[in-house]
Fold:
Amino acid sequence: MTPAPILIIGGGFAGLAAGVDLAEQGKKVLLLERRNFLGGRAYSFTDKVTGDTIDNGQHLMMGCYHHTLAFLKKVGSSHNVKFQPNPRVDFLSEADGHASFACPSLPAPLHLLAGLSRLKTIGWADRLKALRVGLALRTMNGNRARLADITVREWLNELGQSEKIQRRFWDLIALATLNELPEIASADMFARVLDQAFMHAKQDSTMVISRVGLSDLYTQDAVKFIEARGGEVQLNASVKSIDFENNRAVGVTLSNGEQLPAAAIISAVPYFMLKEMLAPELLATHFPAVAAFKSAPIVSINLWYETPVTDLEFVSLLDSPIEWVFNKNAIADESQPRRQHLALVISGAHQTATQPKDALIALAHAEMKRFFPKARLQQPVHAYVVKEQQATISHTVGTARKRPAQKTPFANFFLAGDWTATGLPATIEGAVWSGQECARLIV
Ligand SMILES: Cc1cc2nc3c(=O)[nH]c(=O)nc-3n(C[C@H](O)[C@H](O)[C@H](O)COP(=O)(O)OP(=O)(O)OC[C@H]3O[C@@H](n4cnc5c(N)ncnc54)[C@H](O)[C@@H]3O)c2cc1C
Structure:
């Protein structure tokens, strides 16, 4: 009899990171993915009209994504990401024009101070007040318990941050990193992000971006890595139930009725799928908090223009419903783009995600005309909208305490995924770390 494999349910960043580390340690792995492609909430596909690659939503990483960067290196995909030489974020305001939050080569957190001092979309008084946030992070010494009970907005108000700097700086960072509105997002999670991204090494603050479509960034290379070490990845394998006997996970039943035995099981699916796979009494007894999570949407609007409208690689729009514009041609280092492909992002999009796609495209083009004069003389030649209704968990106050650990009450059953207790917001880095942590616990 061949020994039962370790089953990993879910082929997103978390499942693949777990599979890679287990395969590396010589463990027999079988990864099961419900869909006919891998990548979960971070994937790409080919647009039928233009032939261009579209991500399900533009993803940004940072230098502080240490586990993700190590994972990409391990599977041989590091060359597909590019690092900013120095941390830099561009802002565009209709009234004040272009400004950069550009951090020079100074040790952290001096690089941040210098970056802020140059940000001309915010007045001097506000820039000075922003230092209070850095000071609060420095003096907190990791003791953020109190922040778990207040919102980002309450914390920033406490720290004397004006309405203007909140709207034009902090809110954009909070939305981009937490995918939730500052009025309801947890201050604790925000403090964690700011600490990780800005208070340590300067390289941690740089943006890291994939030159290629998200699926091409990591899925095939991870599969190759797993298969080269005797593991297996099965697509179109939808797990209906995780089966337990005598307090142990014994295997899974697929939706086609097939039963697969397991030596151990890692669930690497989102919370709303885990709910479907566990018996209600088991869920209520051992994972009661799972029922309490809610999701936050992200809307992405892809626009194509015949004549390029901007050279900037990515830019945040101030006082606009569109938070970020990504220039896909510049990101892919195309020297002579045929046409310009822009990917526009709206995070924490509870309202926007309810609007019809045509209305979103009209809104997006109107905003491009407002910020980029070259868009005023043309219509987009093509548009494609992706609404991810369940992009991430909603990081409301109190949510962090409910996130379950990777280790469960069952000795051979583990939980991975960006929504588990990672200490980070629901991001690629959290997902990868959780998968690697499950692998470590098993080994
Ligand atoms: C539009 C958008 C933009 C984002 N931007 C960023 C960003 O800029 N930076 C960042 O760090 N993060 C970003 N994120 C978050 C990031 O994508 C997620 O944190 C990460 O992809 C989660 O990975 P995961 O492996 O935990 O879960 P998932 O990617 O959801 O993977 C779970 C997998 O399990 C499979 N599955 C589900 N049910 C079953 C079943 N019953 N049987 C078998 N398989 C099953 C699913 O099909 C899926 O492939 C963004 C997310 C979205 C949607």
User: Anything to note?
Assistant: The domain at 295-393 is CATH 3.90.660.20 (Polyamine Oxidase; Chain A, domain 2). The mean pLDDT is 95.
